[in-house]
Amino acid sequence: MTDQTNTQLLFRQARAAYKMGHLKRARQLLLEAARQNPQDHRVWLWLATVAPTPEKSLQMVQRAEMLQPDDPMVQKARAWAERRLRQQTAVSPPRSSNSHTHSWQTAVMYGTLSLLLII
User: Fold this and answer.
1) Residue 36 burial by CB count (10 A; 0-12/13-18/19+): exposed, middle or buried?
2) What is the pTM of this model?
3) 81 with 37: CB under 8 angstroms?
4) Using CA atoms, how far apart are residues 41 and 107, in angstroms rounded to an integer?
5) CATH number for the domain including 36?
6) What is the reported pLDDT for 99?
């Protein structure tokens, strides 16, 4: 199996894991795909979707942007990541706040970018 074929398989598995709500598994698969094919901007966009923090999301989008600066999806992802970062710094509640609310807000943010990536 070629690296390209294996990367595509990892990418498909990661998307399936994401759709089932297995963000940690999706992140692991995407990190392996990025290791095998660091030039695939789509992998970096999906890594932004499952990144644990807004800062990491923006870093992943920036990697995609270096590879495909004119791609409209990359530009949309950049706007999403910057908005996510602004929202975090504007509302920055203590980490001991209601984790259920935080999980819900995070899920909404992830869902927003995944819709952008799917469309």
Assistant:
1) middle
2) 0.73
3) no
4) 23
5) 1.25.40.10
6) 46
Structure tokens belonging to residue 17: 């894991």
8 Å CB contact between 49 and 117: yes
pLDDT (0 to 100) of residue 97? 47
Residues 6+ apart with CB under 8 A from 36: 3, 6, 7, 10
Q: Kindly state the tokens that stand for 56.
A: 């990491």
- For residue 8, the enclosing domain spans 3-118
- CA distances to 7, 8, 40, 46, 91 from 88, rounded to whole Å, are 32, 33, 28, 20, 5
- The tally of domains found in the chain comes to 1
Instruction: Give the whole-angstrom CA distance, residue 92 versus residue 25.
Output: 27
pLDDT digits (tens, 9 = 90+) for 66-105: 999 999 999 999 999 999 888 887 766 555 544 444 554 5
**Residue 55, Cα to own-chain centre: how many angstroms?**
11
Residues 6+ apart with CB under 8 A from 15: 26, 46
